[in-house]
Amino acid sequence: MTHRLVPWLLALAALSFGPAAVAHKPSDAYLTLQVADTQIDQRLDVHLRDLDRELVLDHNDDGRLQWAEVRTRWEELQRYTAERVRLSVAGQPCSSVATGEPQLDEHTDGAYAVLRSRWTCPAGAQALTIDYRLFADTDASHRGLLRLSHGAGAPQTAVLVPGSTPPTTLALAASADGETPSGFAGFVAEGIHHILIGTDHVLFLLALLLPAVLVAGAAGRREAATQWRPMLAEVLKIVTAFTAAHSVTLALAVLDIVDPPSRWVESLIAASVVFTAIDNLRPMLAPQHRWRLTLVFGLVHGFGFAGALKDLGLGGGSLAASLLGFNLGVELGQLSLVALFLPLAWWARGTRFYQRGVLIGGSSAVALIAAAWVVERVFDLKLLGS
């Protein structure tokens, strides 16, 4: 009975990141707080895509938001965000009023609404509590990226998880180097989080692993591998190549040595998934050379990881620690996926379900999904939903 369940568990592991998954980078909002005595000026940048998903801003449903569609709903946007971002000190709520004119700003992954407000808090506050609930009920992957400035000290940064209990509290005296409260461990956790919710990275890795438990047989047909050591050695080469490649470009991008446009990076990442999935269907590379393919595409994926790390906010003193922590988190997340998938694939490798259903059917589905991502990212369209 257990053996019969394995193919279905394997299919779930391979295809659970399908069309419903977001084809863009994970959802982020940018919360900037400038503290001056009892007043706090707030700027909140929220992606129009996320607001459209919640409030249906695209009135004519043409897949493209127009400035007029956003501007006419601006007061609603202000109310929506004000209800979901609240500040308090020592248990006493701060009061806020909306300020500023309707405004958009361009971030690496598209246009964001810029919503400003001014808070008045009780005097004598030593710490500020941020109760952040933006998209808490609809997007578990969303994160708020906080930057808090107070006086002449270095800004503090933090990653806000919507609806977290207890809410995030920061001292109103910034540390000397602007270190985040979560420090190194926090960047490790965010690296793990990013790889696990990064659907394109996950599908790329799974597409690489799908044929790993098979070998070329008679008439070029794939057959179940009989020895696990050569299979494991090949997987280790692939994982090592991916790690080495994306570590290089992650560092280059974070250090601003190389900074390619995000739109083209995301498009090339999607294209790498398409190519790898098609190579599963119509092999163009010998199995022993797939690590070279991984090395090349890993360079592109590293730039994608760098965009996520930059969004988290890096103080100069914490750059090395945050880079190392985030990269370590990505590797831990990647290894957890390999550890989950590979034993199941090895167990089911001899079944027709795996060789036809998972490898051929799964690779076909991945190729189609990723092809849609390429179109979405190159032409800034919405095909698979938000």
UniProtKB/TrEMBL annotation:
<dbReference type="InterPro" id="IPR032809">
    <property type="entry name" value="Put_HupE_UreJ"/>
</dbReference>
<feature type="transmembrane region" description="Helical">
    <location>
        <begin position="358"/>
        <end position="375"/>
    </location>
</feature>
<protein>
    <recommendedName>
        <fullName>HupE/UreJ family protein</fullName>
    </recommendedName>
</protein>
<keyword id="KW-0812">Transmembrane</keyword>
<keyword id="KW-0472">Membrane</keyword>
<feature type="transmembrane region" description="Helical">
    <location>
        <begin position="202"/>
        <end position="220"/>
    </location>
</feature>
<feature type="transmembrane region" description="Helical">
    <location>
        <begin position="321"/>
        <end position="346"/>
    </location>
</feature>
<keyword id="KW-1133">Transmembrane helix</keyword>
<feature type="signal peptide">
    <location>
        <begin position="1"/>
        <end position="22"/>
    </location>
</feature>
<dbReference type="InterPro" id="IPR018247">
    <property type="entry name" value="EF_Hand_1_Ca_BS"/>
</dbReference>
<feature type="transmembrane region" description="Helical">
    <location>
        <begin position="293"/>
        <end position="309"/>
    </location>
</feature>
<keyword id="KW-0732">Signal</keyword>
<dbReference type="Pfam" id="PF13795">
    <property type="entry name" value="HupE_UreJ_2"/>
</dbReference>
